[in-house]
Amino acid sequence: MKQFESIVRREGSPSVASDKTVPLVLIIDDDAAIRRSLSELMMSVGIDCIGFASARSFLEAVLPDRAGCLILDVRMPEVSGLELQCQLRSDGYTKPVVFVTGYGDVELAVRAMRAGAIDFLTKPFRAQTLLDAVNVAIEKDVSLRAEAKAIKGHVDRLSTLTPRQRQVLHYVALGKLNKQIAFELGITEQTVKVHRGSVKRKLQAASVGEVVRAWNALPIDVRNTCSLNCAGHAS
Question: Which of 119, 148, 177 is the C-terminal boundary of a domain?
Fold first, then answer.
């Protein structure tokens, strides 16, 4: 487990005054003793953490934008850990989850893992086992955040293309040659070359391969919308 310089713990605090590069673990458990124990464990390896006594208090909090994960108790009053996981997924919340529970239940474990949990640990468990799971979860979140940032960059750059440049990009991504694109769009091959150059420049791509990779990295709904618009313009 990587060691970090800044160590901060807050119980239900809406903010943590710490280095944004330090991972933040959100502990949601209705047992105060468990929250304290887990917080101390995270602090021992230099990970920031915030504790919440219920799903409701977690959902109402304004949280720092930091890489990290959730440690969720399975059985809690009002909203269970599994119900919270389901709600977060439906809301598009992607932060990885590690479940801890005092009730070993194979069915619950299967449901949690199928819903994307990193691990499902039954108390008592070794501290290192939890730390290993948290480390995997943090690494996954770092990767997800980097991927989301890259996709946002692609989408932002795509928005700078003109309708004609989007049409050309669409056909380039389909693997069509310049003369084929020219025929599809009713323009000259030289004009296609000019548009391809503009697309590469605006997408900050050094090659056609990078242009295609940038296109493929876009969310499917964005690609589909662009493709439909291109087909409409080309018809």
Answer: 148
How would you write the pLDDT of the chain (235 residues) with one tens digit per residue?
A: 333 223 344 444 433 445 678 999 999 999 999 999 999 999 999 999 999 999 999 999 999 999 999 999 988 888 888 899 999 999 989 999 999 988 767 777 888 888 889 999 988 899 999 999 999 999 999 999 998 898 888 889 888 999 999 999 989 999 999 999 999 999 999 999 999 999 999 999 889 888 888 888 777 877 777 665 665 454 3
Q: Is 190 domain-assigned?
A: yes
Distance (Å, whole) CA 126 – CA 219: 40
Number of folded domains in the chain?
2
Give the Cα separation of 94 and 69 in Å (integer).
Answer: 9
Predicted TM-score (pTM) above 0.85: no
* Residue 169: strand, helix, or coil: helix
Q: What DSSP designation does 2 have?
A: -
Instruction: Provide the domain limits for residue 171.
Output: 160-234
Q: Is 220 exposed, middle or buried (0-12, 13-18, 19+ CB in 10 A)?
A: exposed
Instruction: Report yes or no on 84 lying in a domain.
Output: yes
Contact 47, 25 (CB under 8 A): yes
Instruction: Give the residue from 113, 148, 183 where a domain finishes.
Output: 148
- Domain of 113, CATH number, reads 3.40.50.2300
